[in-house]
Design a protein that fits this description.
The chain has 161 residues and is mainly β. The chain has one helix at residues 2-18, and strands at 29-31, 34-42, 60-69, 75-81, 85-96, 99-104, 108-110, 114-118, 123-130, 139-146, 150-159. Strands 1, 2, 3, 4, 5, 6, 7, 8, 9, 10 and 11 form an eleven-stranded mixed sheet that branches. Strand 1 and strand 2 (34-42) form a beta hairpin. The radius of gyration is 17 Å and the shape is globular. The chain binds copper (II) ion.
Amino acid sequence: MKKAVLLSLVLVFILAACAPAADSGEAVVAKSGIEIYDPWVRAAAMKEDTGEGMHGGGAVTGAFMLIKNTGSQADMLVSASSEAAADVQIHETSMQDGVMSMAEVSGIDIPAAGMAELQPGGYHIMLIGLKQELKAGDTVMITLVFKNAGEILVQVPVNMP
Ligand SMILES: [Cu+2]
């Protein structure tokens, strides 16, 4: 019985991982040809700011989403901001010599008639120095700034990791 439950959980994860993000319904917000799908931010507990660590201490978490560009002109996500965190950066996670690390990038290209996926292990929006604990069911407002489309405010639900 336990095994069956475990197996079905594994299946759920596999199915979730394989589900094409493009098929997941309607855009939560759209402006000037840019459409935002399936935004979520990872739940995070508060942490004492020691001034150490990759992001200078305090609690951090990532926000993820699919960004589509239905226009005929390329666009670029150039920055983001949120009241929920002291600092917000655009990051890319990469593997170097088997070690996972992440670095701030100057922006994420959203090709014309294309898309960019922000997902764990890849591009993400990093919320640094959270002002409060983020629990599943909470909502975080994040303002995305695009080179052409300008500012787009996105209501981002908090999900468990
Ligand atoms: Cu990051």
